[in-house]
Structure formats: C-alpha cells, structure tokens
Amino acid sequence: MPYGAGGGGQENGLGVAALVLGIIGLVLMCAYGSGIIFSVLAIVLGKMGMNKAAQGRANNAGMAKAGFIMGIVGTVIGVIVVLFFILVFAGALLSGETTTIN
After folding, report:
1. What's the whole-model pTM score?
2. Nearest-angstrom CA–CA distance, 40 and 46
3. Nearest CA to 45 among 13, 10, 78?
4. In 10 A of CB 69, how many CB atoms?
5. Per-residue pLDDT tens for 23-35?
6. DSSP 57
7. Poorest-confidence range of 38-42, 57-61, 67-71, 94-98?
8. Closest alpha carbon to 45 in 64, 24, 29
9. For 54-67, what is each residue's pLDDT tens digit?
10. Which has fewest Cβ within 10 Å: 26, 67, 83, 97?
11. By three-state DSSP, how is residue 26 classified?
C-alpha cells in the first residue's frame, strides 16, 4: 500500500473498554456492590465489541468477550451483595432490639 493511502483501521476501542470496565466492576464489588454500573457498561460494550469483531471491523474479540463475561459475573455478584445488605439492614430494623452504651 503506498504511503498516504488510508487503510481500514481496526476499531478495537470497545473491546478494550469492556475489558477495563469489567475489571473495575469486579474490583469495586468489594465496595458494597458499587461496581454494578461498571459491570453493566462492560456487558454493553463487550457485546458491541464482539459484534464489531464478528463483522471484521475489530480484531480483539477475545478482549470483548472477556469484558462481557466479567461484566456478567460482576453484575451477578453486585446484585447478590446489594440484596444481602438490604436483607441485613431490613432485619436489623425489624428486630426492634436496641443497644445502649453505659
């Protein structure tokens, strides 16, 4: 290809973003499930990245798929963590027991 001729570049940004957001989402699950937002974004971007790879517009299908899977895992863990805290706080409120410091 001669110099200056525009070659069709790969659009790998979505796969990379999905992978990064999936990692961030999993790490932030330790913070009371706050990584759910990142995990959902990883699912969306991972699916878009896999579609681009299937069309031949990107060459990082593995990254996109890894981000997609980590997004799913992070979302499931996040929902479990949030439900756990809701049940714990609801149980504490409904127990009616109080503690006093003397």
Report:
1. 0.78
2. 10
3. 13
4. 15
5. 999 998 877 777 8
6. S
7. 94-98
8. 64
9. 998 889 999 999 99
10. 97
11. helix
